[in-house]
Amino acid sequence: MPTFEFWNDADSPVHPASAPDYLPRPQLRELQLHRLQVTVARAYERVPLFQQRLIARGVRPPQIRTLEDIALLPFSVKSDLRETYPFGLFASPMSDIVRLHASSGTTGKPIVVAYTAHDLDVWTSVIVRSLAAAGVRRGDILQNCYGYGLFTGGLGLHAGAEAMGATVIPISGGNTDRQIMVMKDFGVTVVCSTPSYFLHLVDEARQQGVDLHALKLRIGVFGAEPWTEGMRQRIQGLADIRAQDIYGLSEIIGPGVACECQCQSGPHIFEDHFYPEIIDPDTGQVLPDGATGELVLTTLSKEAMPMIRYRTRDISRLVATPCACGRTIRRLERITARSDDMLIIRGVNVYPSQIETALLSVEGVLPHYQIVLTREADLDQIEVQVEVTSANFSDEVKSLEALQKRIAGAIERITNIHARVRLVEPNTLKRSEGKAKRIVDQRKMG
Ligand code: DLL
Predict the structure, then answer these.
(1) Distance of CA 16 to CAs 2, 126, 164, Å?
(2) Would you tell me how many other CB atoms lie within 10 Å of the CB of residue 61?
(3) Is the pLDDT of residue 330 over 60?
(4) Domain(s) of CATH 3.30.300.30: residues in the chain
C-alpha cells in the first residue's frame, strides 16, 4: 500500500485513493458485477456451507449474470459464524491468512474473522478513503482510542491512518487521564473513538480544567455504536470539532465499510468493495433505494472470508440522491438502530436511539443515560436514568420535578410510551471505554 505523500502538496481536493468514490455509476456497476461473480465462485468452491446452500436452492455461480441476480443467493447470518467456529467460513488456506480478529458479542463463542495480505491492503485503502472523506489530512495528529487487540477498531483504523500520512498515536481505550494529557501535550487534531467514550473524555477534560476549545482538536471520527444527530450536535458544541460518522462491522471488514464526507449527510458506502442491499427484515424481499429496512452487505473483494448477503441487523436506508461532495457512491442513512436492539414495551416498539433523541432535546440534560427494564406484576416497566447538570440537580424539588416531567413528555411524544424518569447527578452512570451499554434488562433476572 503506497503512502500518499504528494497529496497535500498538490493541494488537490480529492485524495488519490478516493478515486473510486467518484466512478461513473455504470462503470461502478460493471466493476461490482465482475467482483461479485469472482466472489461467488470463490465462496462456492471453497466454503462448504455456502456450497451446500447454493446446491439446496438449485443455484450455481454462472447464474449470476447481472447484479440483480444477487437475489438468487441465500442470506448469511451471525449464527453461521458461530456454528462454523472458529475457521469454518475461511476461503483461504491458513498459510495465506495473515491476521485474525474476533468479536466477543454478548453470548457464547466469539466470531472469528480472517484477512489475507490483500484483504489488509483493501482495508487500508478504505480507511484512507474514510479519513479523507472525513477531512483528515497528512500532517494531522491522530489519537486512536479504539481498542487495539482482537477488536477490529484499533488496528483496523491504524494502518489506513498511517498510509494517509497522519501521525498516529495508538493509545487504544482506557486510562482517561493519560488520554487528556496526550491530547493536550501532543497537539492532537483528530480523535477516533466511540462517541460515548469521547463524551467521557470531554467530562474528564473539564474536571482536569482542560479547555477543549483551546486545543488543536478539529475532527472526531466516531463509530462502532449507534449515535443520533442530537448527539452529534452536542459533541460538536462541547469540543468545537466536526464529528464524523464511520461505520463498519467485523464480519464485513471492520471499520471502513462507510464513512461520512464533509457534508455530514450519512456515511458513503465504499460500494466497489461492499455491495449493499436493503431488505424487509420479515420477508427478505429487496427494497428500493430510499426505503427503510435491514442492511445486507456482500463483500466484493474479500479473499479470506467472503460474506455473501450478510444480514447486519442494522436498520437504515440507501440514499441515491447526489451528494454535494460529488461522490457517486451511495450513502446510508446514519444507523441509529439495530433490529435486535428494539424494545417492546407493553406492546409498543421502541428503539434506544428514539429515547436519546428525546433526552437531548431537553435543556439541562447531559448526554449520559441508561435504560433499565424491569417487570412488575407481569407488566414491562421502563426507567430512563439520565444525568442532568449540577445546576439543575441542586435546584429545589419543584423544578427537578418539572424537568422530570419535561423529559417524560419528550419521550412520550417520540415513542408513545410513558417512561419513568430518574434524574441523577453528573458522573454517576457507569462510563464505558468502548461501546456504551445503554440497556440494562432486569426482566429475565427473576
Ligand atoms: O464496531 C467496527 C467499527 C470500529 C466501526 C470502529 C466503526 C469504528 P463490530 O464490533 O463487529 O465492529 O460491531 C459492528 O456496530 O453492526 C453496528 O450495529 C454498530 N456500528 C458500527 N459503526 C456504527 C455507526 C465495529 N457508525 C456493529 N453507527 C454494527 C451505528 C454502528 N452503529
Answers:
(1) 11, 12, 10
(2) 18
(3) yes
(4) 342-441
